[in-house]
Amino acid sequence: MSIKYIRGLYYCVSIVLLMPTGMCSWYFNYKPSTVNVTSADIQEQSPLVTLLLVPAGDARNQGRSLEHQFESSSAHAYARSLKTAIEKINPVVRVLVSHKPGEIVQPFQVPTMANTLAVDLVITINCYRELGPKPALYLYQFSYGAEFISKLSECAWNSIDNAYLFAKATTGLWAAAFVNACKSDDYTSIFTVHGPYKLPFKPLIGIKVPALGLEMSILQDDDWTTLINPIVAACEQLFNPIIKQRSQMEVV
Questions:
Q1: What 3-state class would DSSP assign to 215?
Q2: What percent of the chain has pLDDT over 70?
Q3: 3-state DSSP call for residue 174?
Q4: Which CATH number describes the domain made up of 39-251?
Q5: CA-to-CA distance for 187 and 29, rounded, in angstroms?
């Protein structure tokens, strides 16, 4: 046994013997603290419904001109406010925004997010300026208008043009329910509702899950604030049956 090894062992034993009793006891009896997980924490970690909001425009394309800014600015502001309002009312709903202001949206970025992140509903947000007496709300769902001949193939790859067929039935039901909720007597004096219209609406192409296109007319840049509560109520009407069903499944 070398002298260096013996000297090193001597130093280690001396340090342990000279260590204060309390510190030595803490060192050898240390146990990591446990985190108390409540049912509320579990609900926050496991959302029952996921909504993806897709505001129009990006760093390269700012969209149409509004009163003092471009379409992308108002669409992003609306998406952030809508996210906050929905999550405040129902914490088990997770709301995602497809991109940040100033970010460049890559081709097929939105369909990839929608089809891979277990999203339950996609809502695209567009706005334009119109000098009308009150705002107008248009709702779209993707379609080429030839569903009777457009079918999914079980033996071949399906193109992005046929992606909407995966959730065609659910999208149609939700679009009708969405419009009916927005046509409530509480909102008829605030804005007018049009649709749902079946169109090859470009922002919805390639999305396999239920997807709706929302386009609103505004006079001033902040007129979108009047359309927060109606959309929150419409989303709540769509999500409540899903939340109830999935909550029962988790209990079982």
A1: strand
A2: 76
A3: helix
A4: 3.40.630.40
A5: 64
User: And the tokens for 194?
Assistant: 């049009």
Structural contact between residues 125 and 78, judged by C-beta atoms closer than 8 angstroms: yes
pTM: predicted TM-score of the whole model, two decimal places: 0.78
Report how far residue 177's alpha carbon sits from residue 181's, in angstroms, rounded to the nearest whole number: 6
Q: For the chain, which residues make up each domain, given as ranges?
A: 1-31, 39-251
Phi, psi of 163 (to 5 degrees): -60, -35
Peptide bond into 196 cis (omega under 30): yes
Would you say 81 and 32 are in contact if contact means Cβ atoms under 8 Å apart?
Answer: no
120 DSSP 8-state letter: S
- The answer to whether residues 235 and 51 touch, using CB atoms and an 8 Å cutoff, is yes
C-beta of residue 141 within 8 angstroms of C-beta of residue 204: yes
| 3 state DSSP class of 151 | coil
In contact, 236 and 90? CB cutoff 8 Å: yes
Contact 133, 218 (CB under 8 A): no
Q: What is the pLDDT of residues 166-215, one digit of tens each?
A: 899 999 999 999 999 999 888 888 889 999 999 999 999 999 999 999 99
Cβ-based neighbours of 97, under 8 Å, separated by 6 or more: 52, 53, 54, 55, 76, 79, 80, 83
